Each structure stands twice: as C-alpha cells, then as structure tokens.
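Q: How would the structure tokens look for this protein?
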Amino acid sequence: MISLLAAAVAMGNAVVMVPSPKYPLPALEFIQVLQSSDLPGGVVSIITGGRDQLTQALANHSVVKAIWYW
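A: Here is the predicted structure in token form.
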C-alpha cells in the first residue's frame, strides 16, 4: 500500500484510500502519521464504508481520474 501511495503522491496526485473493512485500524493509524507529517492536507484522504458502494461513487465522481483497486 505504501509504495503505491508514495508513487502516486510523488507524481503529483492526491490519493483517496479505502481501507480493508476487515482490518481498517492500520490504515487509520497510517493516516494519523501522515497528518502529523509535512505532507499538505488533502493529499492523502481515507474513507470507510462498503467497498462496492465507495468504488461506484468514486468512479462516478467528476474529479477522480483513476482508480486502483487491490
């Protein structure tokens, strides 16, 4: 996850993460680390919920240019 995120941010993209519904806590802790870093706010965001619904909402959003689903 971190290598994909780092590559996307290094290329100038913002990233929206959808953590595992089974194990969301590591991603939530990771986002807290990023919030305390020098990374500008909004570069990495996290949303939680049903993956299928979130994927559909992101795919239909006018600002989202790509989705990497793993």
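The beta strands are 15-17, 44-46.

The two ends are 9 Å apart (CA to CA).

Upvote if useful.
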